[in-house]
Specification:
globular; 20% strand; alpha/beta; 11 helices; two-stranded parallel ribbon; 320 residues
C-alpha cells in the first residue's frame, strides 16, 4: 500500500512541471525594458507584446525600468521568479558591454538568464566628411595611416567606443576615440571636420546623409541595407574582419521551465513573421531576428569573448 502511494506521489511530481507548462500562461506576461519609453528598444518591445499577446491568449505588457544604463531593469529580471511571467528585452549593450565595463555587477548574463529568442539585429554605418579625399573604405584606411595626426573617431556610448576600437585594431590604423553626448553631436563633429570618421546607427546616419555634409563608405552588416542600397558592406570591400552586427534579444530568468521557454520562442518567432511588425522594424532600421534561443545564446557567448578581447587589447577602462 505504501509503495503504491509513493509511486503515485512520484508520478505527480514528475508530471507537475509538464502540467504547469501546459497551463502556461494563466495570467498576463510582462516584458521589462531597461530603457525609457519611446526609444528603439521600447518600440520593439511594444510591437512584440501586441503580437505575442494574441498568440499566448493573455495580455503581454511592457514595463520600463530605466536607469544605470539598463542595469536596474536587467538586475530586476535576473532576480525574478523563473516562471515565464517576467521577461527581458535586452540589447547587446546591457548583456555584453555593461558586463565587460562594470566590475562587481550583480548579475551574470550567462548564469542568471535563459535566452529565448533573437529579436533583431542592426549594423553600423561608417561616415566621413563629404570632402574628405577618400572614396572607399580601403582609401580611408590608407589615409588614416598616412595622416595619424588627423586620425580620430567618435561616438556616444560604449557600443560605439567598442566598435571604433575594433576598427582601429583590425584595420591597423592610429587614432583615439572621443566621447560625445549624442549621435547628433557626433555627426556634427564629422561634418565640421573635428572627427575623421565615426561608426553610427543607421537612423542617424541616414539623417546625416540627407544634409549632404557627410558620406557613407560602408555598412558593417553581412548584406547591404535596404535603406542604403548604394553603400557597400565591409566584406564586399575586402575587410570582413570589420563586420559588426549588434542585436536585441528576449531573455527569461535562469531555470525557467524548458517547455515554457520553447513556447515563448515559438510565439516570438511568429510575431517577427508578422508583416506589420516587419514593416515597423524596417522603419526602425532593424532586421528581424532569423533564429531563436540557440542563435541568441551563441551570439551572447561569442560577443562576450570577442568584445572582452577588444577591451583588453585597446585598454578600454572599466567603469568606476
Amino acid at each position: 500500500m505504501l509503495s503504491r502511494f509513493l509511486l503515485v506521489a512520484l508520478s505527480a511530481l514528475a508530471l507537475g512541471p509538464a502540467h504547469a507548462a501546459d497551463a502556461y500562461p494563466d495570467r498576463p506576461v510582462r516584458i521589462v525594458v531597461g530603457q525609457a519609453a519611446g526609444g528603439g528598444m521600447d518600440t520593439l518591445a511594444r510591437l512584440l507584446s501586441e503580437q505575442m499577446g494574441e498568440s499566448l491568449g493573455k495580455p503581454v505588457v511592457v514595463e520600463n525600468k530605466s536607469g544605470a544604463g539598463g542595469v536596474i531593469g536587467t538586475e530586476f529580471v535576473a532576480k525574478a521568479d523563473p516562471d515565464g511571467y517576467t521577461l527581458m528585452l535586452a540589447p547587446i549593450g546591457n548583456m555584453v558591454f555593461t558586463t565587460i565595463l562594470t566590475p562587481n555587477l550583480r548579475y551574470s548574463p550567462q548564469k542568471d538568464f535563459t535566452p529565448v529568442a533573437m529579436l533583431a539585429t542592426f549594423p553600423l554605418v561608417l561616415l566621413v566628411k563629404s570632402d574628405l579625399p577618400v572614396a572607399t573604405l580601403p582609401e580611408l584606411v590608407e589615409y588614416l595611416r598616412k595622416h595619424p595626426d588627423r586620425a580620430n573617431y567618435g561616438g556616444s556610448g560604449p557600443a560605439f567606443q567598442f566598435a571604433s576600437e575594433m576598427f582601429k585594431l583590425r584595420a591597423k590604423v592610429p587614432g583615439e576615440f572621443i566621447q560625445y553626448r549624442s549621435m547628433g553631436e557626433t555627426i556634427t563633429a564629422i561634418a565640421s571636420g573635428d572627427l575623421a570618421m565615426a561608426l553610427v546607427d543607421t537612423g542617424p546616419a541616414i539623417s546625416g546623409l540627407a544634409g549632404g555634409k557627410v558620406k557613407a563608405l560602408a555598412v558593417t552588416s553581412p548584406q547591404r541595407l535596404a535603406a542604403l542600397p548604394g553603400v557597400p558592406t565591409v566584406t564586399e570591400l575586402g575587410l570582413p574582419e570589420l563586420e559588426i552586427e549588434y542585436w536585441a534579444g528576449l531573455f527569461a530568468p535562469a531555470k525557467t521551465p524548458p517547455a515554457v521557454v520553447k513556447r515563448l520562442e515559438g510565439d516570438a518567432a511568429k510575431a517577427l513573421r508578422n508583416a506589420r511588425v516587419a514593416e515597423r522594424m524596417k522603419g526602425l532600421n532593424m532586421v528581424p531576428g532569423a533564429g531563436g534561443a540557440e542563435q541568441l545564446a551563441r551570439a551572447l557567448d561569442t560577443d562576450l569573448r570577442k568584445w572582452s578581447d577588444v577591451a583588453r587589447s585597446a585598454n578600454i577602462q572599466a567603469a568606476r
